[in-house]
Amino acid sequence: MYYGADYYPEHWPRERWERDAELMAEAGINLVRVAEFAWALMEPEPGRYDYAWLDEALDVLAQRGIQAVMCTPTAAPPAWLCQQYPDTLLVQRNGRRVEFGMRRQYCPTSARYRQLSRQITTAMAQRYARHSQVVAWQLDNEFGGHHARCYCPACAEAFQGWLERRYGTLDALNDAWGTAFWSHTYTAWDQIPLPTDAVGSSNPGLELDFYRFSSDQWISYAQEQIDNLQAHSSAPITTNLMGLGFGEIDYFAMGRQLDFVTWDNYPTFIQQDPAAIAASHVLMRGLRDQPFWVMEEQAGPSGWQAMSPAPQPGQLRLWSYQAMAHGADGIVYFRWRTCRTGIEQWWHGILDHHGEPGRRYQEIAAMGAEVRALGDRLLGALPPKAVAIVLAYDDRWAMRLQPNAAGFEYTPLWLTYYRAFHRLGVPVDVVPPDADLSPYALVVAPMLHVVSEAYAHSLSTYVQQGGHLIVGARSGVKDLHNRVVDRQLPGLLADLCGVVVAEYDALGAGNCVRLAIAKAGAGLGEDAVGHTWADILAPRGAETLATYLGTFYQGEPAITLNRVGIGTVTYVGVLPDQDLADGLARCAIERAGVAPLPETPEGVEVAARDQDGLRYLFLLNHTAEPKTVPLPEPGRDLLAGATIRNSLSLAPHGVAILEIPLGG
Ligand code: GAL
């Protein structure tokens, strides 16, 4: 298994490099990621390349058997480039150009930037394609970060071309966007504007298409780099994505163009909640339904101006094993040593600024020894497939553009459903709306807002074949052009759900509505609460599981269940609070016959990966107290090297990986 560090030899004097390599090797580090921000060093002036320093750094690392992920440096174009070619700079929605001085200041559409990045990428590919240490390539760094969309003239023109290819004729586009509204009818492609209006009053069809176009621009820009690299190198290609926290690029589409997925995990900086971190891991695994790597795993207190709290003893190891529990086959820490200069002075690496090993180094080194002892047995193993949660970038974008009610956000809603399964110890896969659903006994669509005939058909086939489906509020509202459908909601899903929305109430952020659980809904919990949104339902064949209390629609259905053959569809007309989501998940797994993993005490996460007749059961204590986990069957603890029966003791932030024969 690769266990690595993001290494910037260019930030340190040459005479330090041997010591770095020595300390890395002692910590079990067998891989570095290099060069992703080193364009100015590798091409100090146009067309003059200098790789001597990088070659030398690789040589030093080679003496310790350390391999490398080589990066294309295009996330940080040099000053000379930006000065010479201002047309490569990204323009923000307010019309202002991003000037040189940070990073990621380029426009992915710019033909000139594409040409310049082709040159550097090709030069690097020629140089390092056959380098014995280079095991993979990373494209750029965090595509879409800082600035996800560009509003420059080149993007305006490319958007018009993209629309022409998508719609064929202006009549089709005018119809799809309903441009009769406010006299927006287009009679020439070059009349179509970018959505730059500060009032935010662009057409929803145009806005959603612009989000799609912008996502496509990153994907086509990445594809050019992939093509350049593949012309010279057969090493696998990845890029570092940003988990669930970043929603600007259709990661399912980007995942398809990569050989493997990697992402950047900063538990205390971005997400404190272990379930939210797990959700990102699971999404990243779901992009290719394959194991992934963490390319930047938090190694210390993090922040640019102010830092997050220090990881407590054991937490760095815990977070790394959590990643492995959900399918990580490689862990690379950000960064090797904390930089003395630049805006990331407080973004701590494994070593502090002074470079002497400290507590975090010792913890990572101890884990390095464990990782070596584990060997490659976990590589390729995947969790059992029983439950899928649908995540749709179109829905994230449509809801961002028009949240429907104050405080109605896609990701927190999605996470509430995810967290319910996480708490129950039920492994889930994250899938796009057009996925093959047949491997799953239960599918959850927290909100399928933008629905095509094809999605509706696939869900209906799934349920008719015995699948169990949960559909959340505000589903079936829009068609693919972001038009509201011309039928009763949930639109194309109404027949399948056996219910229509008679009326709805945009409650808004923080406003709750109480529900009475009907007999048929027993198990959903008592005192059920919804918030932010309420669909007032009229069953058309479905039975009522819960009704509203204490509002003008008191007594009307809020949650329904439709039986379709041996399959079922639950329609949830509110945004559930966590207790209600937990109840929905509990009832659904029972109905679908999905067995959870062994129950764990509060704060202990359980996850599993299976391979070759063996289950690797991960138990992860996210609390600062010791915990005892009852075990229904014995297993060999791979980290402790002992067989554990009846119950397992976990130290604060402790971890166990039990190997258990499957079906034994
Ligand atoms: C990541 C990024 C790294 C570094 C790190 C700390 O998102 O990929 O290059 O900037 O954050 O800020």
Report on the architecture of this protein:
The chain has 664 residues and is α/β, with parallel strands linked by helices. The protein contains 17 helices and 26 strands. The strands form 4 sheets. The chain has a 10-stranded mixed beta sheet, with helices on both faces. It has a 9-stranded parallel beta sheet with strand order 5-4-3-2-1-9-8-7-6, covered by helices on one side. Helix 9 (251-257) links the parallel strand 6 and strand 7 (262-265). The radius of gyration is 26 Å and the shape is globular. The model has no long low-confidence stretch (mean pLDDT 97). Beta-D-galactopyranose binds next to loops. Beta-D-galactopyranose (GAL) binds next to loops.
Read across the widest sheet, the strand sequence of neighbours is 11-10-12-13-18-17-16-14-15-19
- Kindly name the structural category: alpha/beta
Summarize the biggest pleated sheet.
Answer: 10 strands, mixed
Share of residues in strands: 15-25%
Weakly predicted, low-confidence segments? none
* Spatial separation of the terminal alpha carbons: 28 Å
Helicity range:
25-40%
Bound chemical compounds: beta-D-galactopyranose
Q: Which value, in Å, is the CA radius of gyration?
A: 26 Å
H/I helix tally: 17
Count of extended strands: 26
From the spread of the alpha carbons, the general shape counts as globular
**What is the average per-residue confidence, as pLDDT, rounded to a whole number?**
97
